[in-house]
Amino acid sequence: MSALKVISLPVPGTGSIAPDLRRSDHARFWDAGIPALMITDGANFRNVEYHTTGDSIERLNFTFMSNVVKAAVGTIATLAKPMSASRYDIEVMETGIEEHNHHHKTGCALQVLRNKNNVGITFNSCRENFGEGTIRIFSLDGKMHHSIAIKDGSQKTFNANVQLLPGTYIVVADNGHEAVNGRLLVD
């Protein structure tokens, strides 16, 4: 995989000094005084046929596109600082689509701390036991780096001895009915 070159360009005010940087949805937020982030791959500067009748699938660089998506997801996850989320299961049925919303029943939150290669994961604020399940550590590209089985639902603290490269990781505890997330930053 080739490296993706990232250029950060802070733009003062509403970006009026660089009209090309106002050509997306974020400009409306700037105009309203709301901080906004534009992530672009410079499409029309890479492909002269961009958004014309000459644009075709043959002109797409899928490796580059994949790297842009990974960079965008990593940026969003880092800025959003996701800590917990509800879980939604969607079943496709012959008569249509049915949604099942599983709200947090235990009310647990994860605290994630790191000391060298040891990652400590603690359930906090639980109204009831989390139950049996799995704790997994993922990098932002979706790769799982470690997995811990939760066999005793009353256990509150877990340790993982795992070597991680510098970056942001998401720790997910899942018991089949709910999932809670924590963020891990490795310097």
Features:
Immunoglobulin-like, 4-stranded antiparallel sheet, 3-stranded antiparallel sheet, 9 strands, alpha+beta
Description of the structure:
It is a single chain. By secondary structure, the protein is of the alpha+beta class. It has two domains: 19-80, no CATH class; 87-186, Immunoglobulins (Immunoglobulin-like, Sandwich). It is built from three helices and nine strands; from the N terminus they run H-H-H-E-E-E-E-E-E-E-E-E. A hairpin with a 4-residue loop joins strand 8 and strand 9 (179-186). The longest helix is centred in the middle third of the chain and has 19 residues, at 62-80. The model is unreliable at 84-104 (pLDDT under 50).
